[in-house]
Design brief:
By secondary structure, the chain is an alpha+beta fold. The protein is built from 4 helices and 3 strands; from the N terminus they run αββααβα. The chain has one domain: K homology (KH) domain (GMP Synthetase, Chain A, domain 3, 2-Layer Sandwich), CATH 3.30.300.20. It has a 3-stranded mixed sheet with strand order 1-2-3. A hairpin with a 5-residue loop joins β1 and β2. α1 packs across α3. It is globular and about 50 Å long.
């Protein structure tokens, strides 16, 4: 069960990461990255961010690129939320493939 503080930090990090990725993807035409969920560990030291990447064919490539540059993303996040959080959590990014799963189920049901 997540505490109220964890839930607030989850929403804060999700909002700020979404804005960071929005600014970065404006440079790359035809790519959209949205942060679908963030889960912070109970001690607030680790944050798992789940990303939905469009087009999904480029998902692994973009995720690898993000994980290679995770320190710069964390630095940018720290500049934005440094006044609200004492410790900026370590970031781990994962692909959220739930939309692809829903689309596949939908396709199977329509056939």
């Amino acid at each position: 069960m997540e505490s109220n503080r964890q839930q607030k930090i989850n929403r804060l990090i999700q909002k700020e990461l979404s804005e960071i990725f929005l600014l970065e993807t404006k440079k790359m035409h035809g790519v959209l990255i949205s942060v679908t969920n963030v889960r912070v560990s109970p001690d607030l030291s680790m944050a798992r961010a789940y990303l939905s990447i469009f087009p999904s064919e480029k998902g692994e490539e973009i995720l690898t690129n993000i994980n290679d540059n995770v320190k710069s993303v964390r630095y940018e996040l720290g500049k934005r939320v440094g006044k609200q959080l004492r410790i900026i959590p370590e970031l781990m990014f994962h692909i959220d493939d739930s939309l692809d799963y829903i689309e596949n189920i939908d396709k199977l049901l329509n056939n």
